[in-house]
Amino acid sequence: MLSEISDQGILPFRYVLADSVYANSSEFIDAIEALTGVTYLLQIPEDTLCWLKHPVVIRKTYQYGGQRHTKELVSDQVKASISVKSFAARINDFFWYRRKVSEGTKGPIEYEFTKRRVTISRHGMPWKTVWLLIRRTLEPEPTYSYFISNAPLSVPLANDTQKVPAYLSAHARASTFLTSFSIPIDTSLIPGPIM
Description:
Elements: H1 2-8, E1 15-18, H2 20-23, H3 26-33, E2 39-44, E3 49-51, E4 57-64, E5 67-74, E6 82-83, H4 84-90, E7 97-104, E8 107-122, E9 125-136, E10 144-149, H5 172-180
Parallel strand pairs: 1-2
Antiparallel strand pairs: 2-10, 3-6, 3-8, 4-5, 7-8, 8-9, 9-10
């Protein structure tokens, strides 16, 4: 579907934002990555497993049914993968950056963000190395949200003076994305809200 939309050029796009239903689909992510110049931001569940460093994968050869087989395994010298929730809970406050995402009726709406390159685990094996973007609320007991992105390696966190463009303030995921990464946006490519 995404490749058809892109090929037809009816609705040009550079960003794909989706919830965890789509983030759990390897086929969906592969379809996005096949499109040139398209960046995704996908919400993931808090129990998603990852490694902070890409794990070493080894090949083991074994005999079964009279035939020789090879199996890839994560080396037992590698630390176990951890959930994004447990990783977020361990991050020192120094690494969180406060960002204003919009103006609310009672004042600015702000969150804290952090990002880190991680390798996502699928079926106990390394799957993709991506940006993990974590958003948390400002309450004493914050609520966390987790996202993965294929944004380029050189993308910095936005500085404090950068604000979310007003035309995107109604789009929460886009606001999260745009306030956390300094990515130039061609506003002509962003349609209004779809009702």
